[in-house]
Task: structure prediction
Amino acid sequence: MLWFFGLSILFVIVFKWVPVPFTPLMITRVIEQKIDGKEMTCSHDWMAIENISPNLQKAVVASEDGNFLKHNGFDFKAMQKAFKNNNRGKKLKGGSTISQQTAKNVFLWQGRSYIRKGLEAYFTFLIELVWGKERIMEVYLNSIEMGDGVYGAEAACQYWYKTSAKSLTKNQAAGIAAILPNPRKFKASNSSSYIEGRKGKIIRVMNHIDRLEYK
Result:
């Protein structure tokens, strides 16, 4: 246990400044591709947050975590709402914040076990304490899956729109944010009517978000 706590805190401190080179999900996807006999692809280009369009930062807040700048890693109201919806038999929703998603993507495996959820809470607490909101957003936008074999903002912008993360328009940013629930199924460009509807909702919320002030 002492080794675990020591190493986990060490990695969190290191990743406060050092770019995350790869995540457990990237490794899992490459293994899946190998097993399925597919070409192994993993597009991932780290980009400092100063070079990621504010449009994308606003889009993921609008889509994934409207209270990102207000909570301390956990949005208990969103969790409660998700729990009620799931109990009513509606489509499963996790209620996870951007901080929780970042902790899961960087440090943990995929799954829904109580052990993993407990570790997710632990790492979420650590990154909120050590990293702060701006670094959490930076790591999130550089590590999450944004397409089949596509990870992070720069790779996604090149893949979907042939442009850089810094030059992303509001509509393009909404397109990427709209597919995050299932980026291997949906398309950010030439999208289905469902994704176009999500894009419209995200843009409407973005219009009410002022400049993001990280603390």
About this structure: The longest strand covers residues 145-147. The two ends are 32 Å apart (CA to CA).
